[in-house]
Amino acid sequence: MAPHPETIIAAFEQSGIIPVFYHDDADVCCEVLQACYDGGLRVFEFTSRGAQAQPNFSRLLELKRAKMPDLYLGIGTIKDAAAAAAYTQLGADFIVCPITDPETGAYCRSQQILWIPGCMTPTEIAVAEKNEARLVKLFPGNVLGPAYVKAIKPLFPNLKFMPTGGVEPTRVSMDTWFDAGVVCVGMGSNLLAKSLIDSRDWASLKEKIMQTFAFLDDNA
Questions:
Q1: Tens digit of pLDDT for each residue in 52-83?
Q2: Could you tell me the fold of the domain covering 5-211?
Q3: Which is nearest to 142 in space by CA: 122, 124, 161, 168?
Q4: Which of 15, 25, 160, 197 has fewest C-beta within 10 Å?
């Protein structure tokens, strides 16, 4: 059974940075996960965006269980309850969606697994809240921006927010988002640079993650 949702929300807040990643090559996926872990991150979102998503996620779970007992490994880009069920059965710790689908939320509640719906409008956020979401993914973050967070937070005082997209691994970008009131940020290619992955430069990827983590420490 997955850890309690509140435990994982606390881990999201403590981590501050949630790497978001997919690759067709399982070995690359494992190296990226290892670099993130070695760089200090303890939450990782793999995305269901390709033909190899399920077998590669299974490989990541094997690595987590063998070497990373304190890591929370979840699955993203989940758009329906059937996909949520498939990954829950594999062993996902949490479910992240690009949309707000009440059926997926109901399934996750039935399994006591954290459901993080994706929202863009106040109406979608209200639907997520009505369906007992506690942490909401603001997507796409590059379209919404930090000012949007400041505008909506007073309307939803009991919700926590995580933007994905549009967050850069710089002190200025991170400070702007966290000052607006988010509890963590999702980062894909801005953090997990394609150039480093293509060149298999895992040491530099780890260093970049550590540097980005340091911006959070400075902000704290």
A1: 999 999 999 999 999 999 999 999 999 999 99
A2: TIM Barrel (3.20.20)
A3: 168
A4: 25
